Each structure stands twice: as structure tokens, then as C-alpha cells.
Amino acid sequence: MELKLSTIGKSDSPEERFYAAVKWFISSLNGSFSSRVPKGEWEKKPFNPILGEQFICSWEDGTHIVCEQVSHHPPVSGFFIENKDAGIIINGHDGQKTRFSGTQMLVDQVGYCTLKLTQRDETYLFTLPSLSVNGIWYAAPYVELYGTSYIQSSSGFYASIEYTTKGWISGELHHFKAKVTHEELLPKPTVIEGQWTGKSTLTKNDASAEPFLDLSTMEKPTPKVADIESQGELESRRIWHKVAEALKAGDYMTASTEKSAIENEQRALRKERAEKNETWNPKYFINKTGEAIFGDLREKILEKSDSKFVDTMGAETGWLYKDFTTLASSSK
């Protein structure tokens, strides 16, 4: 099974399109925080993105993505995804606020994601769950989700998704429970429940649960990324190439030296900008007010969620992609 972004808008039913959007969102959580870690291994400390760092790639179904580090303090990444043939545009940003609690590192994801189906004139707003990094003190870190995220569609469908984990006595790892509502079309909430890393079911109108999503059978599509030599100076794999190669070879001295060279160069650039009183601006993204991005979808989530998500939404401003014209050629 392969869940493609390009299939979200295919159904003529707004309800089925909403469920397809939920499937995509859940699968993206799995891809971001679980399936990317090889089986039998643990989370590793990532590189610290430099200001303006970019990642650009594409997939065989015609989907393109561009990401850029639009802020370093605090760290914020802007992202834009488009599939022109399918009429899908995704825009958003993701920042982090971290703190320690006991043996866990807790991370609030400050940001959002909007998904536009241009052929349906339909828009979705997604908020992001919080993370906990467990297992740090015994050198076996893994990510768990907690809290609640929300999805609001311009067609009126709404979902609240609660994330829980295994307790001392009961429960399971990576558990989620979503309640889908619509004031006119759903007399009772539809419940979607299971693991965001595995299987989940859908229960509608008190009927028997039916299969919803099985991520264990899903094929992971391979992104197409330009060769290192063809990448721009600020693209991730080019920036960190020497560090990554040294780590693969077990040459930690060289890796540390190359990493320090990158960091020292960034400090020098910051100092130079400060001396010249220059303001740095992203290449691909521009900052806009929240109203221009969310329309009335944010207010609808605020109303239905009793304002629970406002602290992690980052809704005062947002990062919008400037222009898609250079993306396709850059990722070939």
C-alpha cells in the first residue's frame, strides 16, 4: 500500500476527502517521528540547521517540496509542498520550544500546516502535536506524541486528535484517538483510533469498527534529490556533506572540525550583518499575518477547542512560500 498526497482530492464527497486528509496527516507523523528511524536503532541528535538552510526534493507522482530555515533564534522551518496535477498546495512552518521534565525532553511544536485543494476550492488547517523524547538517560531515545492537535476544513468537518502512550499498567505506545464532527452531516462523532505508527480503525454511528489505515503495509516513496555538486550552497546535503561522510567513516575528529568550521562561518556572518545593520531575509518564504493565512479556520478551531491550542499555534504571523517557479527545476 502506498498513500499518496495526490489522492486526497479525488473523492467527490467532502467527508471522504476529510478522511483522506486525516490519513495523510497521520502517515506524515509516522514518517516524521517513527519510520525514518531504522528498525533496531534509536533516535540520533540531528544537525542544527543554519539560518537559510534549504532542502528541496520531489517524488515520482509529481509532488515537490521546499523547506527553509527561516529563523535560527528561535529555530523555525518554513515548508511548501505542491502537486500541480492533483491541485494540492501545502504551506506551513514548524518551530520548537523545548524543556526538560524528569527524564524526558518535552517539545512544543509551534506552527501549523494549511492544505489547499485548488480543484475543490477547499482548505484544511492542521495544528501540530507536542513531542516527548524518552529514553535519553539510558541512551535509547525515542519520540512519543502527546497533547491534542486539530484539523478544520472549510467544508465544515473538524477533528480533534488526542495522543497518549503506554502507562505502567495499560495502554499502548503511539496511541491516538480522533473525533470527527460536522454540525449538519454527522449526527454523532466519527471515531478514528489506533496507533499513528501502525493500524487504526474508524467507527461511525455506533457501527462496528472498520479498518482505516495500516501503516505497516505502506511503501515509503523515495524522494529525488539533486546530486551534491548540483545543489545550491545552502542546501542541507551540500552544507553537511563533509560532516556526514566523516561520521559514516567513524572519523569523529574530522566531523567535529568540519562542524566547527560551519558554525564559525555562521557566527562571522551574523557579526558582519550586525556591523552593517543588515536584516537577513529568507529566499523562499515571506512573513504574513495570521489572518491572511488562516482565514476563519483558526477562529473555528479556537471556538471548538476552547482555545486549548492557542499557545502552540504561532498564529500572530506565518511563513508563506513566495514563488513556485524555481522549485521544479531545482529538484530534478
TrEMBL record:
Any one GO molecular function term: oxysterol binding
UniProt xrefs under Pfam families: Oxysterol_BP (PF01237)
Any GO CC annotation of this UniProt entry: membrane
Protein family per UniProt: Belongs to the OSBP family.
Protein name: Oxysterol-binding protein
Organism in which the protein naturally occurs: Circinella minor
